[in-house]
Structures are given as C-alpha cells and as structure tokens.
Amino acid sequence: QLLRLKADYDIIIPLGDIVDYIGIKFPSTDDGDDGSIDFIEVKTNNSRLSPAQKKFKSLILNKYIGFKQVTVKLNDINKELN
C-alpha cells in the first residue's frame, strides 16, 4: 500500500496518530492537475474510524482547515537552552 501511495503523491508524511499519512500532490501544468493535500487513514478488514477520527474527518469535509506559520526568534531558543 505504501508503494502505491508513494506513486500517487509527490510527498508522503507519516503521522500515525489521528491519521496515518498526509499525501501531498503538487499542481502540475503538464496534465492540468490542481494538486491536493489528503489525510490518509489506512484501515484493515472491517475496522472503522474512531470517534476522534470521525470528528477530524468532519472538520476537513466542512473545510475548517487552515495554515499557520510560527516564527521563533533565535535569541528565544538560546535562552531556553541555557
């Protein structure tokens, strides 16, 4: 399965907590693909999503998703290390 995922995406990021992977496919002008970011949960046989996974899926499907950038000043890191 992982080999198939690697073939379908440009980047696969293993998580393993609420979902197993994030798959990133960058836009391609060659084939008109818009690209995508997919949260991937691998289930076996008859296993089902946990309550937390169902809530997570709902957040995504309802588009409650964002991007946050955090900037850390190097001086702050040096203070914490000493």
Task: Please provide a written account of the structure.
There is one protein chain. This protein is of the alpha+beta class and 82 residues long. It has a 3-stranded antiparallel β-sheet with strand order 1-2-3, covered by helices on one side. The longest helix has 11 residues. The N and C termini lie far apart (45 Å). The relative contact order is 0.12.
Annotate the secondary structure layout.
Blueprint (H helix, E strand, L loop, with lengths): L1 H7 L2 E4 L6 E5 L10 E5 L10 H11 L12 H8 L1
Antiparallel strand pairs: 1-2, 2-3
Briefly say what this structure is.
This protein is an alpha+beta fold and 82 residues long. Helix content is 32%, strand content 17%.
The H/E string reads HEEEHH
Low-confidence stretches: none
- Per DSSP E runs of 2 or more residues, the count of β-strands stands at 3
Q: What is the tally of helical segments? A: 3
Q: Which term fits the overall shape?
A: extended
Largest sheet: 3 strands, antiparallel
Task: Give the structural class.
Answer: alpha+beta
* Distance between the first and last residues' Cα: 45 Å
Side-by-side strand order of the widest sheet: 1-2-3
